[in-house]
Design a protein that fits this description.
single chain; Muramoyl-pentapeptide Carboxypeptidase, domain 2; 47% helix; binds myristic acid
């Protein structure tokens, strides 16, 4: 008889998933720490994280569209719901709530139900201006640009800065109409 009973396949997968998530969180933390050391200015770190996210976002959209089977959204409201419920879940493992729409339907906020990026994170006083999760701004901006939407993405609330939740505002600046690829004769 083994001293420890073997775990079921499901339990092994669940624990592998948790280890992967922790590894991802710790790796992201190590990247942020390195950027702080290299760049010294938190504003520069914020910019760099946003740029990193943008580079990820412009590539990630293909994987998102292939895996999610999401087709064209009718408007920005539907796009926002898709990001909150499908995109966040797929890449971050959590959902977000879409809220705070403006009257024009071009600005809204994502309120994160949880934020795995910040597990184990405590910011020292010297990093108070840091937007630790700024990679997410870039990811959303980059992904949406690939489907013809120019956006501005800004943190409104950030628990690492003492707020009660994580709120990311997305403003649609411009929607470039897609050109019909064939000429009518
Ligand atoms: C369309 O109308 O073409 C569909 C647009 C879907 C855009 C979905 C963008 C996914 C972004 C994922 C963000 C993940 C953040 C962790």
């Amino acid at each position: 008889m083994p001293a420890v009973p073997p775990r079921s396949g499901e339990a092994i997968f669940a624990s592998a998933e948790r280890v992967n998530a922790e590894l991802f969180t710790l790796t992201y933390g190590a990247i942020v720490r390195q950027l702080i050391t290299d760049l010294e200015e938190v504003d520069e770190v914020n910019k760099q994280l946003d740029q990193m996210g943008y580079n990820i976002g412009v590539r990630l959209i293909d994987e998102f569209l292939a895996k999610s089977n999401v087709t064209r959204c009718v408007d920005f409201k539907e796009t926002a719901e898709v990001i909150a419920k499908v995109g966040f879940k797929m890449f971050l493992g959590v959902s977000a709530t879409v809220t705070n729409w403006d009257a024009e339907g071009t600005t809204c906020s994502f309120v994160l139900e949880d934020n795995p990026l910040v597990d184990f994170v405590e910011l020292p006083d010297t990093c108070q201006g840091l937007h630790y999760c700024n990679v997410l701004n870039g990811v959303i901006r980059g992904a949406l640009e690939m489907v013809s939407m120019k956006t501005e993405v800004t943190w409104i609330r950030d628990m690492l800065r003492g707020d009660d939740t994580y709120e990311l505002q997305v403003k649609l600046l411009k929607q470039i109409p897609e050109e019909y690829p064939y000429k009518d004769d």
